[in-house]
Structures are given as C-alpha cells and as structure tokens.
Amino acid sequence: MTLSNEQLIQIRRHLHSIPELAMHEIKTHAYVLQVIQSFSQTNLEIKELPELPTALLVLVKGSNPQRNIGYRCDMDALPVTETHESSYKSTNPGVMHACGHDIHTTVALGILNYFSENQPKDNLVFFFQPAEESESGGKVAYDLGAFSGDFHIDEFYGLHDNPLLKTGVIGCRMGTLFAGTTEVNITIHGKSGHAAYPHLANDAIVIAANFINQVQTVISRSIDPIKCGVITFGKLDAGVIRNVIAGEARIEGTIRGLTQDMIEFIRQRISEIAEGLEKSFICQIDVDYNQGGYYPVENNPKLTKRFINYMKENKNVAFEETEPKMTGEDFGYLINKIPGTMFWLGVESKGALHSADFLPNEAAIQKGIEAMVGFLGYRMNLEEE
Length: 385
Ligand SMILES: CC(=O)N[C@@H](CCC[C@H](N)C(=O)O)C(=O)O
What we know:
EC number: 3.5.1.47
GO molecular function, one term: N-acetyldiaminopimelate deacetylase activity
Strand content: 15-25%
Cofactor: Mn(2+)
Structural class: alpha/beta
Mean pLDDT: 97
Radius of gyration: 23 Å
Protein name: N-acetyldiaminopimelate deacetylase
Bound molecules: the ligand CC(=O)N[C@@H](CCC[C@H](N)C(=O)O)C(=O)O
CATH architecture of the largest domain: 3-Layer(aba) Sandwich
C-alpha cells in the first residue's frame, strides 16, 4: 500500500513525539522497523547491525540491477527542550527533534515505500542511521562493514532539511556543501580555594575566560578573512558555589572549516594558546580533539552535476543553488569513502536548526519524496557514460 500524505505526516509526528539521543534511538528504531514491515516485503531484505543496534539497512532488489544506489537518513535528536505546543510534542523530556531528523526519516520511509510497491531497476540500499549529532553513526556503520556484499553502495545520496529555504525547495551545489567539524574538549586544572584568598588558589574560571577570549582571535586574527572558520564553545562547566574558587573548568566546543587544512590549522592554534596559558597561569590544560566522521561534505562532481541538472530541469521541483554552510555532517565521511551527493530540502521554519522553536513545514515531506523518487527513476534509466 502506498502511504498517503496524511499517513506520512502521522509517521513524522510519531517520530517527533519519541525523540532519542545519539546511540539511544531504541523506540525510533523499533518504530521505523514496524513501518517498514508494513510495506510489501516481496523485494525487501532487512539487515541489522548487532554492534550498532539502532541502525537499520534495507535492500530493495532491482529488476535488472546495474548498480546499488544508497540513500541515507539520520534518526537521532538533540538535548533541547521543545517550546512549541502540539499533540505530537516530545514525550522525552529535554530531548527534541530540533534538527529535523524526523523529517529526514519520514522522507526516507516515503521513498522506500514507493520502491517497495514499484520495483526499481537498480538495487536500492536505504541506511537509517543512528547518531549524526555526535558519535558518528555513519562512520561506525561504515567501519563495521555495513556496506558490503549485497548491501554495498556504488553511489550515495542524502538530504538535510533547511529552515531558510522555502518549503520543498531542493538546494545543492557542486563541491563543498557542509564544513568539516572537530569536537574539542578542554579541561583546565587550577587549584580551588577560599574566595577571600585568591593568591593561595589558581582560579580555573579566570583561566577559562582568558582561554575563550584568546581563542576567538584565531578566527579574527589568524586566518585569512577570505577563507572561513568557526569556533563555538557551547558548554562551560566550572565551580560549585560563589565563595569557593573553582579548581577545574571544562569547556566543550566545536571547530569548523570548509577544508581539512583549515580545521587542522585551527586545532594547532588552539593547542598553542593552551600551551601559552599553561605557562602564564602555571596550570595544566588538557585539550582533546575528536573529528570522528565529520569530514567536509564534498559532493562528487559527476553525480552532483547530474543531480543538479535533473532538479533544475524538472518542472515539479523548485531548485536553488546554495552557498556552503558551516553545519557539519558525518555523511561527509560516507561520501569520502563512496561517491555521493548531499542536498538540502527547504522546510521554511522561523526557528533555526538546533533551536527550541524549530518548526519545519511538514508539506516538505511529500515534495522531498517526489523529487527523490523522480531523480532515482531517471538515474536508474540512464546508460552509464
Ligand atoms: C546538520 C548539523 O547540525 N550537524 C551537526 C553535526 C555535529 C558535529 C559534531 N558533533 C560537532 O559538534 O562538531 C552540527 O552541529 O553541525
């Protein structure tokens, strides 16, 4: 049975009501599996990964396969408390689909549903991925050998929703779509003490303040202004009470650049600043970096040219050429290994990605499905040049 627009919206709303953090997508995985099991199973094969139990792969067997085409969606949510009131509001306190992965998953289910009813020519491999926001679920799956044998992938596609594009618009570009990122954790070891005796302590909060201010000069003063980079510290923990000097501070952040060279340059400058502060404040500063799978999202030239041309020429699709953005994605790792294209789907929300008032327009779901079903049909009928 082909899912109606109403059913797709119900699926999205159910997913929205059960958001789960990276690597904990247990209810989401069970629900997605239940939806897939309601589809015609004639040409479907489901693969689970015991070492990555919230992931799911589905093969749709083609009628005359020349290749395996992959389609990936991510399923995890964020530690954000939703502000919008609705009948499908998050039932998991403090967790919200604030990045639209509920939309991504529903679009993937819609495309899969279509091809379960209309056998494709090529094999299609759907990857329902856990842990995009952290912990690199895509990389973990790849490194576990998920995309091997019948589930190998020759070319890979995936989307991200975009609140700044009009609903249903497909956005893409040749080259780099998203930045590469690196998570950075800094622990400052000072010495705690009485608020009245600062000379007998070593205030980790003062060191953290200096560290944060100095690091901001990396972007404003160390990098070529024509190129770009981002350093955001989203979390700072220090101290226990107003009249005890903090002995330790912990800062968590993310570094972004459109090239791997830029990311490495920023890392080096942060380490140099930490070393300088260790000397000037006579303290110890540990800096840990973790890039995981968040490589720059570099679209494959041949596949992306074909994708963009199709979207531009299709009268039912509104296409926009987009600028690179500093968002990260571990799809960057997957398309570093397997040629692929990532694109945006406009969802026109006043609230930004990662914000408590993110409110995507659900009408984008059907548009995304139609654009991708159309593209895959076209791509499968092309003779390979
Ligand atoms: C699309 C999006 O918002 N992706 C996340 C990816 C997280 C990357 C990693 N955990 C980091 O923080 O560096 C993003 O924040 O851009």
